[in-house]
Amino acid sequence: MTGTTHARSGAVSADSGFDGFDPAAIQFLADLAEHNDRAWFQPRKAEYERLLKRPMALLCVAVAERFVARGTPLLSDPVRSPFRIYRDTRFSRDKSPYKTHLAATFPWIGGSDAGGGTDADGGAHANGGYFNFQPGEMYLGGGVWMPHKERLAALRALIRNDPERVRAAIEEPGFVAVFGEVRSHESLKRVPPGFPVEHPLADMFRWKDMVFGRPLGDDEVTAPTLPDTIADGLAAAMPVLRLLNGLG
């Protein structure tokens, strides 16, 4: 996979290396949050590319190499994994042109969303990992975020029909040690019709997705060991990601 990844990346190669994000990258995004307009950003676009865009691409190359070394079936690609800094404002009341965070997704290889299942503004529907770079909100996580109707139905059916398998994945000691527990971004007020309220995992029927995550310190994202932090963390998440891979 790494050879193919490097061929697609063009300017990025395995030899270029990743040395950690410069602390100035954190300040750049903090400043962007205060001056989210083209008049501020355009004169600083080269700075954005130096501090954020290119390091993120290099990070994805380094993470890809570690995925291969560990046998982790996730895709890390310097072109497809990072999200664009530009917001899609067509259907949003907020017309701010730029995102105030940088992010990358690492979808399951061979899954239906391996090509990049995202919404117009960068929300990932794919099963896989996710890295977020944002002042005060650095984190590593994953799962399946706000899945489409069919996948959500499959998730609920899995919880209903095989609760012991679900528990074995989400309570696996290695996963719990790194990420704690799975959760949902949003839940229904009640268990939906057709699902038993007396089920041992009944509360999970109300979930609209299944995700997990852990915060990262600024010292972790500015360190050259960040690719290992990401790869080791997502390796620990394999029980949950393998569980979610079967949802279709």
How are the secondary structure elements laid out?
Blueprint: H1 2-9, H2 23-34, H3 38-41, H4 45-70, E1 102-107, E2 128-133, E3 139-144, H5 149-161, H6 163-170, H7 173-179, E4 210-215, H8 218-221, H9 226-236, H10 238-245
Antiparallel strand pairs: 1-2, 2-3, 3-4
Helix pairs in contact: 1-4, 4-9, 6-10
Q: Helix coverage percent of residues?
A: 40-55%
First and last CA, distance: 23 Å
Question: What is the overall number of helices?
Answer: 10
Mean residue pLDDT = 89
Computed CA radius of gyration, to the nearest angstrom = 19 Å
Structural class: alpha+beta
Number of strands: 4
Low-pLDDT segments, ≥5 res: 1-16, 113-124
Percent strand equals 5-15%
- Largest beta sheet: strand ordering: 1-2-3-4
Q: What sort of overall outline do the alpha carbons produce when their principal axes are compared?
A: globular
Largest sheet: 4 strands, antiparallel
Order of helices and strands: HHHHEEEHHHEHHH
